[in-house]
Amino acid sequence: MKFLRFKNKADSLNDDGQIKSGFLDDDNKIIELKGDILDYFNKDIKSILDNMIASHSLDDIEILSPTEPSKIVCIGLNYKDHAKELNLDLPESPVIFIKPSTTINRTDNIIIYPKVSKQIDYEGELAVVIGKKSKQVSVEEADDYIFGYTIINDVTARDFTLGDGQWTRGKSCDGFAPIGPYIETDLDPLNQKIVTKVNGNIKQNSNTSQMIFSPQEIISYVSETMTLNPGDVIATGTPPGVGEMKADSIVEVTIEDIGTLKNYLIKEE
User: What fold does the segment set 72-267 form as a domain?
Assistant: First the structure.
């Protein structure tokens, strides 16, 4: 099932300014649900359908980030084909870093190209959304803590990361973590085609089967020392083909069973 957060467009007859939860049905209609999206973690289909409120056209809504995480935990170098591209040895354990909540962005929105940066890169990734508080979770238990999967673009100011000698500033500019459009609860995370396009040209083209560490292994590793809260996001790493986006570019990350995350890179005035 594809869950989402949304609000009605300002010119919609149903505009009430409220953030709403729902799911995408088989007819590409948005079915509005009572309460918060996280209320539907591990709910059966009857419980979900019993909480339907209304139906909306995709044309009448604005899709928001599907979650508001307290943190985004990111994994560096988690694709075998990316390591091969960079001529690097495979890591023995996940390499992690954090993007703050101020980086959160949504699909069909702009990414601001900071005027103090000279190179902005795309990094299309599969992301895990945590469904319940997680601490010291085993690999075998990890699926019980996963709400579902979404898409993230780990946008990076590459001149910052190279110049600073570490990643925090270059990964943490406002809006540098577009997430969405949906949280898919039913997919195989280790067999998903992932493609990133810039202005319609394919830049990344791989499959999550190339991951070094599975989402379950990552959750177990991270939760050994760090509490994961409901709604938190884990970005599971990017495949080969990372590269630069110029100002005024359109960037799209597609994962076959989720959809497409689309954004517009606009230079800061």
Answer: Fumarylacetoacetate hydrolase; domain 2 (3.90.850)
Q: Model pTM?
A: 0.96
Tens-place pLDDT, residues 198-225:
999 999 999 999 999 999 999 999 999 9
* Residues 6 or more apart whose Cβ sits within 8 Å of residue 230: 38, 41, 130, 131, 132, 133, 147
Length of the chain: 269
Ranges of each domain in the chain: 2-63, 72-267
Tens of pLDDT, residues 113-169: 999 999 999 999 999 999 999 999 999 999 999 999 999 999 999 999 999 989 999
